[in-house]
Predict the 3D structure of the following.
Amino acid sequence: MRVWKAFYALVVLVWSFLVVWNRFLVPLDQTPYFCPEKTFSVVGFFENGTGPEFPDSLPTLRSYARLFNVVSPFWYTVGPDGRLVADGYRPEVVAFARSRRLKIVPLVTNEKSGPGNSADAIRTDFARAALVDRLVSVVLDRGYDGLNLDFELLPPERRQDYSAFVKELAASLHGKGRTLTVSVFPDVEVANTISGFFDYQAIGQAADFVVLMAYDRHWSDTAPGPVAPEAWVEAGLDSLLGHVPAEKVLLGIGTHAYDWPAAEGGGIAEYLPTRVALERAVESGSKVLYDPASRQSFFTYTADTGVPREVWLQDAGNLVDKAELALRRGLGGVAVWRLGFSEDGALESLGRALGRRSGP
């Protein structure tokens, strides 16, 4: 009996020694006893809705709350004078998100009308400081976890102003224990007038996360074509990762479509949810096809006016492809534009691809 007790004591001593050795003499992240887990974020962009085709995002958020870590409501718009010209705050959305322990990081965009698309709001030190104060006050007053800055179509010559604004807003939010996310366009096969004001290096250094809006390679102002072709998305991602660490990058994934007139002069292109696009395919008796080169889905049909139309969409297959790409490249997560646009079953497919539950 004494021999066994001695042997047992020796085993415990050796085991304790090995634990101590691994914890203190070997770097912690290389030991089997301490493996820090990287958080993979899934952001759901949220809109209040404007009608049947563009519904309120809240029902979808309620149905798929477990899939997301962050909800990012599109509630705030900054005007040329730096004041908020739109505030879509809804307390019931905040209450629900809090009940599910979701972080609330509202989207703030610029008013895209008039000269410079509200560039005057960040043109001077004084203007930037005033805008930073206003935005941080909103965050504190409403208890948000941070902001997602989505300024678009600023003139390229405002590049330094925008970088300074990002840096100043990030510093102020960080001082209050909040985060800053910045959404950017790819700079591959995108006009400088669209992406030229983004300084990836400066933005990546200041912000906590950077969302690459990896869609709209073809959109309402272009000829018909795939909205988020895989090779283009990867090229844009490569460019961004040359300046921003992978763990800070969130891959933006679309769930929308464009419906173009197939011939010039046949009308205007229409932006619509993928769900609505697929309903049109059913109504017109059109078969949805798959383009292996772009890994995107499309179909053609003839409108009631007799005009041929061509539709490219981002369906469940696109969600899965882009989620797998984000995992493969070691990104910090994905951001889905937007809740309420995808077809039935698409978010379940995304959940399976990410290995997480997608229920309420």
In short: Confidence is low (pLDDT under 50) at residues 6-37.
